[in-house]
Structures are given as C-alpha cells and as structure tokens.
Amino acid sequence: MITLKFQKDKKLYPISPEDVLNVANGGAVEVDQQVFDMLDERRSQIAAKIQETKEPAYGFNRGFGHNVDVPVPENQLSALQENLIRSHACCVGEPAPVEVVRATMFLRAVSLARGHSGVRSDAVRMLTEMLNHQITPLVPMLGSVGASGDLGPMSHIALAMIGEGSVFVNDSDEPVRASDALQDAGLSFFRPEMKEGLSLTNGVQYSNALGILSYFKLRDLLRTAAITTAISAQVMLAADTPFRPGFHELRPHNGALKMADLIWKLMKDSPIRKAHVPYKIDGEIQDPYSIRCAGQILGTCYDLIESARTTLEIEANSVTDNPLLLADEKHPDQFTEIISGGHFHGMPVAVKLYNFMQAMGIISRLSNMRCARYVDEGRNKGLGADLKWPESDDDEAAISSGMMLSEYTSAALTNQIWGACMPTHLFSLSTDAGQEDHVSMSAGLAVRVWETIPRLAEVLAIELAMCSQAAAIRKIHDHIPSKITLSDEEVRETKSARESYDAALKKSLEKRLREKGEGFRVRLDVRLEHILKERHQTWLSRPCEKVVEEVMKIFPLVKKDRCMAGELKKLAHAVIQGKFAEAAGQDIF
Q1: Coil, strand or helix at 324
Q2: CB-based contact 104:206 (threshold 8 Å)
Q3: Calpha distance 490→481 (Å, rounded)
Q4: Taken in order 107, 108, 110, 111, is the CA torsion positive or negative?
Q5: Is the Cβ–Cβ distance between 371 and 462 less than 8 Å?
Q6: Of 186, 211, 365, nearest to 290 (Cα)?
Q7: How many other CB atoms are there within 10 angstroms of residue 170's CB atom?
Q8: Rounded CA gap, 515 and 298, in Å?
Q9: Is 106 designated active site?
Q10: What confidence score (pLDDT) does residue 424 get?
Q11: Of 71, 112, 168, 385, whose CB neighbour count within 10 A is largest?
C-alpha cells in the first residue's frame, strides 16, 4: 500500500515512478488524516477570503478559459464546476488502458494532496476510494492538447466521480454506469464546489501517467536490446573487446558505460567467442557498427530514457492546476494568495516523451540492420542464405525462403516507428479562441509512445528469432569460417588444395565446353576453415544460451518453411513481459 503522509516539514513525502507503477497495477492508496486536515483547513481559509472580499478569482467565482471575465452568481458556483466537467469530457477513440487511468488518478490525487489547489479533502478521498475499490473511469484516449493540462481525459475521470459516464470495475472489460458502480461500492457521488472541478482537470497527469508506465516498458525493451546485441555479436563471430571494462571509461558517457558493461557480462566466458579470439582464425579486424558501436548507441538510448524518468518524477511530485495558493507574506500560515500561472503546461513532459520516440527509432534500426545481415549470405559469416537450415537437402533448399520475410517485417516495423517519430510537440495549435495560444501536444505524443512500444517489441522479437536460429546453425558446424583466402601460389603449394583446385577447374571446363564455345576465364578462391576440436566451442555464453532456450520454446527452429506470424506475436508478447531479461539472470541485470 502507498501512503501519502507528511515529512517533518509538513510537506508530502515524494512519490517515485515505482509507486505510480504499483498503483497502476492495482495497489491500494492510503492518505494520512493529517493530510486531510491540512486540505480542509486551507480550503476554509481561501473560501473565507473570497466570501469576505468578493474579489474576482479565476476558477472560484469566474468562468474558465476565455470566459475568465464572466462573473458567476454565488448560487451557481457548484453548477459551474459540474458543467465544466461535463462539457470538457469530450475525448474520442478507444478507452485508455485501465493501468494508465489508475496512474492518472493517483498522480492527480497526489498533486491535490499537496495543499496548494484549494480543494476540500473530499476530492482526494474520492479519488483514492475509487482506486481502492478498483473503479476505473472509462477515458477515451484522444482529445488532449496538453495545456491547460489534459483537460479532456481528466474530465472523464471527474465525470465518473460525480456519478456520470462509465467505468470499469475490477478486471472486467465491460464498462458499467459510474452511478451504479459507486452505489454498489457504498460511495457517495462527489459534488464539486468552487474551483474543485477545475482542480480535478487542470494538469498533465494523463500525459505523465502514460510516460511513467512507458518508461518501465522501454527500460525492459532496452535490456532485451542488450541481449539481442550480445547473442548477435557471438553468432556473427564478433569481438567482445568493444564492451570490455575500462574501454568506455575513456569516453565516460553514463549510458554507454552501463550498456557496454551489460553486454560484456552477457558475453562473458562465451565458448564461441574464445574459439575465434585470435585474428589469424577469422581474419576480422573490426566488426560492423551495428555490433561494434552498440554500447555507444544503446547507451545513448539509456541516457534518453533515464533523463525522461527524472523529468517525469519531478512532474509526479508537482502541483499543476491553476490558479494555485501560496502563503500570505504577512501570515505564513494562511494560504490565501491566489497566483495564476502555467504549471499545467505539458511542454516539460512532451520534450522528454520525445526522448522515448528517439530511443525507439534508434533501437529499432540497430536491430533491423543486424537482421539484414542475418539473411545476407555475403555478410553473415557462413550462416547461408536466409538462415535456411543447412542439413536440408538440395531440393528442400531450392523451394525454401527460410527467414527471408522476417527481415522484411523488421524493415516495415522500423519504418512505422520512424513515421511515428514526428515531433508533434513542436507543432502547437492555438486553442480556446486564442487565449491558450501555445499548447504542448504532450498527450498525443504520449499516446503515440504507448502505441509504438509494441512495434519495437516485435522488432526485437524478430531479431531474437533470427539469432536463435543462427545460434543453432553454428552448433551443427564443426568449424569457424574465415575471411582469409590463399593466393594462387599458396594453393598450388598445397597438395590437397591443388587437387581441389584441379577438380573444380576440370568440372568448370567440361561444363563450359558443352556450351557454344565462348571465351571464358576461371578464378577460384580457397578459404580457410578453423576446425573446432570440441562441440561446446560453438556454444554461446551461459546467459545467452538460457535466453535462446526460452526463445525456442516459443519459436522453434525453422527447418522447413512455415507460417511464423503467430509465433512472432507470442515472442513479442514475451519481450514486453521482460521474459528474456528474466531468463538471462538477475545477476546480469
């Protein structure tokens, strides 16, 4: 259970992204009585001042947005708040996931509980009781511009609080009327008084909720990207030295240090790597960037993702509606100074949400580039065309496509992710008759992040399928192919090589002479193969072997062509769940 309570300085203890995740996944929330008492005391202070002075106060006794100058009769103040909620609940699209809405409700409750919004304790109590009774408002995903806050999505939550609209109860996928659900739970409808409707809707908690929950998913996908890198590096007979301890200290970007160290640990004690450490075995001096620079590339993604976490955590512990209450300078215990500002503006969140899009675009291309190498016989170091099973007979190979189309799908998904990377937070559209003339578009970007995450999981799933297939192919070979070729003179000096040379030449001549007698030239290359003494020398490191084992439970070896769509879908689902990071071992992550 997450408890909202005071520190010694009478300020609320900060919450963490992990707290938000806990509540999003069904965790309960408790509010200390001292917090409720503080909220009611400050509410009485500001209500008394407004009643006494009769001064115009936005949100309290005036209209909203461009109606800021419209006075509202005292007997209509509550109706003003209810009408605000009803009129603003106009989002469209599919319902937002329950976990996203729960996170949004929790973040809103925390913001109000800080005591600068001027609301009664009833507002916070209602939000937390709905959370604890597993009553989740139905919130259509689209319709917020991220300033003045996520008005539409937040209004759908507030609509359920006043007993209108629809909600989901417990784990049901079927919405029911909010009034019925609240009555069944023994909860009274919330009746907003002056400013409370505005306070419930003013802030980018919806954008921030999507961001925080996306952070945890992307952190797991980044771990999976490290795994696919480590397996691909081993299967592609690449070096581990670009990830070795000490190397990245020469250019100590935090993310690169962490990701390179992770890949190094994943590759540690790899038998197949040990089998080709000397240059003289495979003739490779440097590996392609998609492997050699993976520490730097994924490290940059790590920095993007973790930088976003910092901002989202600050936002989670902020007060974001408008106007806000500050202490009177002459009477510090009286929170009666009404300040109109713009803490509801989502630009800080939007910019960091775009970090997530950048990271996904980068990770996807890195994975896709390696998939392109896997199906390329000229670049995959002896794995054959399209990762076809080597033990298939010639007739079977002739009619097989192997994993060719998986790479097409990886390319299509990468292109889709890139298309989703449009920086829409830079394209502000004025709203509210020009009063709100610069908005953040944070919510639309947050939704796009959320909807793009499964595409990245699918890209990584395809690479997992390919590198597992490739690892199996390596295991049936008794050698490590070499890039080194012999000169004609070296070939002729070797008797066995000379015999092979002569036989091949004779076969080519006989074939050519059966044709129409055109001129021709024969050129043969003889490549070295490093024979392995023991079968285990083709194995991967232990963590990566465990991952491959789990992959093959979902995606068996491709020995004959088959429809792989369903298996790839299941594999992507396992990626989202963090199954392969778990298989690699907690000592690694």
Answers
A1: strand
A2: yes
A3: 19
A4: positive
A5: yes
A6: 365
A7: 11
A8: 55
A9: no
A10: 83
A11: 112
Is 215 among the residues known to form the active site?
Answer: no
Q: Which two tokens stand for residue 363?
A: 């990770």
pLDDT band, very low/low/confident/very high, at 283 (cuts 50, 70, 90): low
Q: Which of 88, 114, 223, 309 is catalytic?
A: 88
Catalytic pick from 22, 58, 335, 555? Answer: 58
Alpha helices in 244-392 (DSSP H): 254-267, 271-275, 279-282, 289-292, 294-316, 347-374
Is residue 36 annotated as part of the catalytic site, yes or no?
A: no
Asked if residue 508 has pLDDT above 90, the reply is no
Alpha carbon distance 551, 468 (integer Å): 7
| Distance, CA of 135 to CA of 161 (rounded, Å) | 10
Could you tell me the two tokens for 446?
């947050």
Residue for token digits 């290359």? 525
* Separation in Å, CA 263 to CA 174, 214, 236, 249, 541: 44, 23, 15, 15, 11
The tokens describing 465, both together, are 């399928």
What tokens were used for 399?
Answer: 């009619």
Domains of the chain, CATH where assigned: 2-203 (1.10.275.10), 213-478+538-584 (1.20.200.10), 480-531 (no CATH)
The question of whether 408 is a catalytic residue gets the answer no
Both tokens of 44, joined, read 């009485």
Q: Which of 202, 208, 368, 380 is catalytic?
A: 202
Condensed to tens digits (0 to 9), the pLDDT of residues 122-140 reads 999 999 999 999 999 999 9
Count the neighbouring beta carbons within 10 Å of the beta carbon of residue 18: 11
**189 catalytic, yes or no?**
no
Residue 567, burial from CB neighbour count under 10 angstroms (0-12, 13-18, 19+): middle
Assign 497 a pLDDT band (cuts: 50, 70, 90): low
Is 202 part of the annotated catalytic residue set? yes
Q: Residue 572 has what pLDDT? A: 98
Of these residues, 253, 292, 512, 542, which one is catalytic?
292
Catalytic residue among 243, 344, 374, 555: 344
Question: Is-contact 374 411, C-beta < 8 A?
Answer: no
Which residue among 196, 313, 436, 550 is the active-site one? 436
Q: Would residue 436 show up in a list of annotated catalytic residues for this protein?
A: yes
The type of residue at 565 is A
Helix, strand, coil tally for the chain in percent (to 5):
55, 10, 35
